[in-house]
Amino acid sequence: IPAKFWRACAGISAQEPPVVNSRVYYFPQGHIDQAASKPRNLSPLVYSKPVIPCRVSAVNFFADPNTDEVFLKILLHPVAVGSSTAQDFLPATEGSGGNGNGNGNDEKVQSCAKILTRTDANLGGGFSVPRACADLIFPPLNFEDDPPVQTLRITDLHGAVWEFRHIYRGTPKRHLFTSGWSKFVDSKMLISGDSVIFMKDSDGRMFVGLRRNMSPDDGLSDGESEWLDAILG
Amino acid sequence: IPAKFWRACAGISAQEPPVVNSRVYYFPQGHIDQAASKPRNLSPLVYSKPVIPCRVSAVNFFADPNTDEVFLKILLHPVAVGSSTAQDFLPATEGSGGNGNGNGNDEKVQSCAKILTRTDANLGGGFSVPRACADLIFPPLNFEDDPPVQTLRITDLHGAVWEFRHIYRGTPKRHLFTSGWSKFVDSKMLISGDSVIFMKDSDGRMFVGLRRNMSPDDGLSDGESEWLDAILG
DNA sequence: TTGTCGGCCGATCGCCGACAA
DNA sequence: TTGTCGGCGATCGGCCGACAA
């Protein structure tokens, strides 16, 4: 997926991806400790060392086919210790060689994220569209219509297109998604606490990405929370 | 699973399972040709031979955890060619040594199979219980009630219990499953042409097994069939 | 005896404005 | 501006007898 989408979906709390040709340390034991699946195809010699100086030879951006969660694949090559200086290992924010990430087309992408409320995630319910999202991302409604309404076609990070009925109604007036939203929540298995990120590129095409809630106690109904509290004391 | 259930579910067209200690021929190439997954852990020497005389050392009965389809695991041990006679390789119907299959408790099991009609398989619909099934397998209804009705608890081949509302009604009167049937069809992903087999052991406990339809053109709606016919000419 | 259909009733889905935070 | 709720209309699941094969 394009780096610009990755940035928007990873969110502000995510670390900036490393830059191609920058130098980093690889900690084999830390990798083993934190990785969900064991690293493969690495010689036992690698594991015997506490730290290995490396050069970032490639950074690629992906979205998980099942969960839509974004992640990176970072290709590392070991380098001789003598050929580097301490400065090379500082967190790089600008390319130290060939303004990298294989993505020169870093056009501006407007994005708007929202954490889903229980009402948003409730199946059969709709989605309260944040005002900023409607103004910045979606095509303007014709407010002479009563009610103003349009059907949006928004692409997810795998290229699948989702349709949402976008309507401006109620008292006081507000932007809502109705038809299509429920199917999206169901398909993506979204629960309250998760986030959706709506994006628009310079051509006006709209995209939607997800960020799953990592806090374990969230995404439960009030009843479930109380029940859990009772069990855990 | 018990051999008696396996027999009932495999049906009359299935070959009788081999008997323990009987002698059979193993055809490696035939195995490779017909098996869905390649046989493993066999030395290349085995594949080089067209046929290998074997002794059946174990026969075990299983039901696929996902599809409920019954199958056998037959453990073979190669035997020296000289130690056998032609008679040993005839299809055995009675044990040639130690009345086998590890299942002496072959009590009588009453069973009744039915091929599902479109109406049976239609989600939201019921199930027309064959008269023989109601008479032979299920507990008798109290025909003084109006309508006669009971809830049956029937165990599948994995030990899961399913509830069916069994009612005798309509004009003319007939046996039907209503509540519970739809969920069963959905969970087991049954389509018209598949079969259900109801069984009762000597203790009166009821069981249900499945047999999937192997004919490829079946299980389609009329519209789908016509459409397929049109494409295929 | 049993396969298929139309009717119909109740449950659920999902759209709505009201209201308050 | 927007989260939650109750209302309620449309849709669908699923139970029913009629009727014919």
UniProtKB/TrEMBL annotation, chains A, B:
Domain of life: Eukaryota
Domain TF-B3: 112-214
Subcellular location: Nucleus
Family: Belongs to the ARF family.
Assembly, per entry: Homodimers and heterodimers.
Biological role: Auxin response factors (ARFs) are transcriptional factors that bind specifically to the DNA sequence 5'-TGTCTC-3' found in the auxin-responsive promoter elements (AuxREs).
Name of the protein described by the UniProt record: Auxin response factor
Shown segment, full-protein numbering: 18 to 250 of 527
